[in-house]
Amino acid sequence: MPNKPGPRIQELRITPIAIVDPPLLNAAGLHAPYALRTIVELVTDDGISGISEIPGTRDTDLALEAARPLLLGKDVFHLNEIQRVLTAQFGTETTAERGLTPWDQRKLVHVFSAIEVACLDVIGKVTGRPVVDLLGGQLRDRVPFSAYLFYKYEGAGGPLAFGTDPAAQGWPAARQAAALDPAGIVAQARAMCAEFGFQSIKLKGGVFEPAQEVAAMIALREAFGSEVPLRIDPNALWTVETAIRYGRELEPILEYLEDPVRGQENMAAVRQVLKTPLATNMCTTSFGDMPSSLARGSEDIILSDHHFWGGLRASMTLAGICQTFGRGLSMHSNSHLGISLAAMVHLGAALPEVPYALDTHYPWQSDEVVRGGRFRFEDGAVAVPTEPGLGVELDREALARLHRNYLACGLTKRDDEVEMRKVVPGWTFQAVRW
Amino acid sequence: MPNKPGPRIQELRITPIAIVDPPLLNAAGLHAPYALRTIVELVTDDGISGISEIPGTRDTDLALEAARPLLLGKDVFHLNEIQRVLTAQFGTETTAERGLTPWDQRKLVHVFSAIEVACLDVIGKVTGRPVVDLLGGQLRDRVPFSAYLFYKYEGAGGPLAFGTDPAAQGWPAARQAAALDPAGIVAQARAMCAEFGFQSIKLKGGVFEPAQEVAAMIALREAFGSEVPLRIDPNALWTVETAIRYGRELEPILEYLEDPVRGQENMAAVRQVLKTPLATNMCTTSFGDMPSSLARGSEDIILSDHHFWGGLRASMTLAGICQTFGRGLSMHSNSHLGISLAAMVHLGAALPEVPYALDTHYPWQSDEVVRGGRFRFEDGAVAVPTEPGLGVELDREALARLHRNYLACGLTKRDDEVEMRKVVPGWTFQAVRW
Predict the structure, then answer these.
(1) pTM, whole model, 2 decimals?
(2) Do A4 and B128 touch (CB under 8 A)?
(3) Is A332 an active-site residue?
């Protein structure tokens, strides 16, 4: 009895969308009123649809378009073969190709991640299993996330970018309020934790002088006590000297310190001095970077991200490498909606260990592109979907509306520097600032 | 729509079998007239059967029995969870637990491999896909194997252990003939390659003084020319000095040198001197051994074996590690039948690269336990099964007969030293001999 071939990819739909994003500050400047995502939908020859979501830029969309002829007709189970043809098309990429900004726009990993997750969604549907079961099955039924705090200007993004709804209370109000000092950060943390139940907290740093950001961390510790793990991510803007000086001040209160400095050599220099574990999604960002990370001893914790490591199965391989070589694993995030969140939760449920709550920007978003509305968090955790595939379905009306947003907003790539200059004329990004 | 749970493991059948094995010589002595294998069959609550085959010893069978209560009721897709409970039961094992003999009898890896492969067989059947599609899909439709030569006494094993069928010609005759010198090895290679079409050749060494085994390799080179890659495996019986001395003689003709010495430190010392790549299935045999293997630079090529590395998915992770850290990957074998061969072929088809033809003892076996008889080799390669699951089904009559062999032969574990003493009284195994 020969095996029935397929299902095969018959159609590839690439839909850029723009989602409302608050004026969040970071090392590269300021979030625009809209963040870009790209929604990918595969349709198979037997009419089954699989979806995925990746960070959006015009270049990635063009790369997906260029990949289409390589993908049409491929069996959705043949992920190794799809990866091989995409690698031949785009070439492998390490941190060297990643660039200096806090986010990652490499083509191969984004394109393959988009296709792989959509194929796994199809495979889950045709086999009647949730995606986590295609990764070896779940080891936990809820995946914990961390509060992700940002310095920010007033406003909640989108058309309201710089306006505040005076009637808003709780997290809606805090999402609109400015947070530009330690007191603002503590207020934001209280509102976010009250709404989502997060039990650990991360601050996106690299915005103000290190002394103020350290003061914010100390204020968080005073407000939340030692039971709530704290992290800060200066996005590689500190010098080694600064990282050591302020890292020592933070040593008693940090769970881990994320990318204090730029590059593995600098991370290794900091790691030799500090007792606090160092985490990265900027200095070690690909399998090709792992040998030198281990040889240099530059990081304790690798922040996986299925969008940047080439999909969910590659992220499981990364977990195996981290387990084998005694490194911790956690998860990085960008502004995202529920399709990415679902994929992150399936992966988080299959990982051998989740010692650190995962990052997510999701509370900062107010849009959604999946049916049934936004995911719920309980005690900071998201329940693992049990439906076949990712367990989320496209809300086509929302998709159309968010695509119109994309067309209307005029953005084609993320550029936080341009956005920052609208507020602070002449502001420039510096790869190392303090 | 909540996900339908299961299929769940309802029954676990453990059947030790004894298969005819010729009097093959190796570092630990002599193969007994029968080799032991254990056939595992899972039956799910909806009546689907999945099978696997592992090296047989009474201790492994008892470990499988002990694991039964942990396994009954488990969802076959929940492989991560099954691995977790088995790891809790048996503990992790590195080369330190492996012992000195050329084969591996660690419990966790054998038990989990048996269960994982049988579960993947079930998953393949319920999803209608060959097992290779559960590993990301095939990258090749035929998997190449190497001729695996042995010094041997006359006879083909089993009841005929020391008899020769005077009518046999070709490979049947060569399988019966003695091969105790270079000319005998060359004759064996010619017959085996003629029958199976192998395009590379491995000699199991560690039997005679290194000078004779080196002479056999040189004779093979003269007989087959430089187009046929050659390997020798002294099973860690050489000293560093011996390995360097004879390794230098073999340098111009070897594809790789397998386990010339015992332990990573000794391998590293040899590797610093020789240009020939070193391979291992004795010095680095677990994920726990990989960091020191890489740090010491002890081996170029890791010989995977899904029976010893904890299954097919773990073998894919090992492949990812080897790719990430610039190590080659090939595959080790023991005496085995078609269920193991099918699993090896599915894995071999999914591996990112197969730069070296895989090992198999299969030509030395004459029994089979799967329906339809023995696998065919064409040009030394086996076609990847396309049926759902492993693509092999138990021949229950053959299974019963081979189980009766097991009961009749009285063997409960492999002991090549005892067997060797029947021929050479007083012979003792030495972990390092020359």
Answers:
(1) 0.96
(2) yes
(3) yes
